[in-house]
Each structure stands twice: as structure tokens, then as C-alpha cells.
From TrEMBL:
The keyword Acetylation does not apply. One of its GO terms (molecular function) is DNA binding. The lineage of its organism: Bacteria, Bacillati, Actinomycetota, Actinomycetes, Bifidobacteriales. It comes from Bifidobacterium pseudolongum subsp. globosum. Residues 124-288 form the Integrase catalytic domain. Keywords: DNA recombination, DNA-binding, Transposition. InterPro entries: Homeodomain-like_sf, HTH_IS21_transposase_type, Integrase_cat-core, RNaseH-like_sf, RNaseH_sf. Belongs to the transposase IS21/IS408/IS1162 family. This is Transposase. It comes from the Bacteria. Residues 5-68 form the HTH IS21-type domain. GO terms for biological process: DNA integration; DNA recombination; transposition.
Length: 288
């Protein structure tokens, strides 16, 4: 490599009128080398070229793109989140890739697919033993046929835990059967449950008057818990369960699941809900 002192001499000798041949003889270099540095305009060091290393996520991009392409034909509430994609990559493919890496890539791909949207959250505080209840909807391949079905969610805001079960509808009978099944699996009964005003167990009128169905009144008396109904159009009064309805749909109903019986599906669904509760609580030390 030609040093800067030699290059400096080449240029100085040329300014004094020396020929290229004379410069080469004097400095002991070849004529092409002399010409090269005489033509050079910028003598500053070239910055090193950074070679981009392949990311661990690259090999999984086609698969992720396939899932997002399917999401375009799926109900907007039942599409993949970055967390769900990461879980599927790890569980189904054995991928060794971090959640943060998947999140960045999914955000980028969702922009391209036009699937990105803004989300908001409401933080509430509740006492131990109190629960909130609501229904959600999700597509399910019921006995091989894709149908929009209902699922009941019972959440415990204090621990941020929720359990769910698939139901044939949202009336009082379905609510009571879902509660009965969940009480049995949980091994206990909440002290108080707050229901949505449209949950099928009763109605709170704008005047404040509450009317429960006879079926629910008998059920509540048998199990001995207190209950209350939200005001009409007041979803913020049960913000935890509303968030859980969406979280369970995104985590446990994506991709669209298959079900052949309520009993078999709900047994597996309960176990999966309890599995979600094993993750660290977002505020407390320890599990949810």
C-alpha cells in the first residue's frame, strides 16, 4: 500500500513539472501507480463497508407473510398479533427468535399488508375474589363448518387472570351453564360478579332499575354470590373482562380452531387459559 508521504511527493513533483516516468523512477513506483494518485480527487479514508448479517427472523418471513395474508380474509378481531406469531413460531416450528425481533418484523409487514391499527387500554383496580363476565365472538370450524360462535369469559381483575368456554348462545341458560362449568373447573365461586348489561342474565334500565331473569336468580341463590349489572353503554365498568375477551380471541382462537363438542373443546380451552396465567404478571412479582 502506498503511504501518504509517497502520495504527497507524487503530487508535489508533478506540480514542479516532473513527468510521470521521472516521478516513478525517483520514487521507485510504477507509472500506473503514479497516474492513479495524480487522478485521485478524494484521498480521505474509505469508511469500512458494513456487511449486513442475516437475521434469525429472515427464514421465517415467508411463513409470517402467509399467516398475515390469511388474516386479510379473517375477521379483524381474530387476526394474528406479534405475540401470537412468536408463540406459533416457537411452538410449531421450534424457532430460536426473540419476541422483540418478531414484533419489529411483524410491525413492518403489517404496514405492507395494511393490517396495522391503533389500540387503547384502560387500567382498573379490583378486590380479590371479584370477577367480571362477558361474551365474545369468534369464528370456529364447528364439526367441519366455519361458524361465528360465542364464548363466555370470566375474569379476575385483581390477578389479571381469565378463563373461558365456548357456548351455543348468550342467553341466561348459556351464561349459567358456562358459570357452572367454570366454577367446577376452578374449584370455587367468586364473591361477586359484574355482568355486561347485555349478557342475558338481566337488564339495568336507564332509570337504574335492575331486573334479573328467573333462571339466573335461582342459579345465583344456589351458588351464593353477589352480582351487579353495568350501566347501558358503560363498558369501562368492566374494562378487564373486555380486554380479556380480545386477548383470549387473539391468543387461543388464532388460527381459527376446530371443535367437535363443547365438552372436549372447553376442557382444552380451560387448560390453555390457565397456561396463559402462568406468564409473569404485568405488575406483580410472580405469576398471574
Amino acid at each position: 500500500m502506498t503511504g501518504m508521504s509517497v502520495i504527497h511527493s507524487i503530487r508535489c513533483m508533478r506540480k514542479e513539472g516532473a513527468s510521470v516516468a521521472a516521478i516513478a523512477r525517483e520514487l521507485g513506483i510504477s507509472e500506473p501507480t503514479a497516474r492513479k494518485y495524480l487522478r485521485e480527487v478524494d484521498l480521505s479514508d474509505r469508511p469500512p463497508v458494513r456487511r449486513e448479517r442475516p437475521s434469525k427472523i429472515d427464514r421465517w418471513v415467508p411463513l409470517i407473510e402467509g399467516w398475515l395474508a390469511e388474516d386479510r380474509r379473517t375477521w379483524s378481531k381474530q387476526r394474528h398479533t406479534a405475540t401470537r406469531i412468536h408463540r406459533r413460531l416457537v411452538d410449531e416450528c421450534g424457532a430460536d427468535v426473540s419476541l422483540s425481533t418478531v414484533t419489529r418484523k411483524v410491525r413492518e409487514l403489517k404496514r405492507e399488508f395494511g393490517l396495522e391499527r391503533q389500540r387503547g387500554f384502560l387500567d382498573l383496580s379490583w378486590h380479590p375474589g371479584e370477577a367480571q363476565a362477558d361474551f365474545g365472538q369468534s369464528d370456529v370450524y364447528w364439526k367441519g363448518v366455519r361458524r361465528r360462535m360465542h364464548y363466555f369469559v370470566l375474569s379476575f381483575p385483581h390477578s389479571n387472570t381469565a378463563v373461558a368456554c365456548l357456548t351455543p348462545g348468550e342467553n341466561a341458560e348459556c351464561t349459567c351453564q358456562a358459570l357452572k362449568d367454570l366454577f367446577t373447573r376452578l374449584g370455587g365461586v367468586p364473591t361477586r360478579i359484574v355482568f355486561d348489561n347485555a349478557a342475558g342474565v338481566g337488564r339495568r334500565r336507564r332509570s337504574g332499575e335492575v331486573r334479573y331473569t328467573e333462571v339466573f336468580r335461582r342459579f345465583r341463590a344456589h351458588y351464593g354470590f353477589d352480582s351487579s349489572l353495568c350501566n347501558p353503554h358503560a363498558g369501562h365498568e368492566k374494562g378487564n373482562v373486555e380486554a380479556k375477551v380480545g386477548a383470549i380471541r387473539r391468543s387461543l382462537f388464532v388460527p381459527v380452531p376446530s371443535a367437535w363438542s363443547f365438552e372436549g373443546f372447553n376442557a382444552a380451552l380451560f387448560d390453555k387459559c390457565m397456561g396463559l396465567a402462568e406468564k409473569p404478571h404485568y405488575r406483580k412479582d410472580g405469576r398471574e
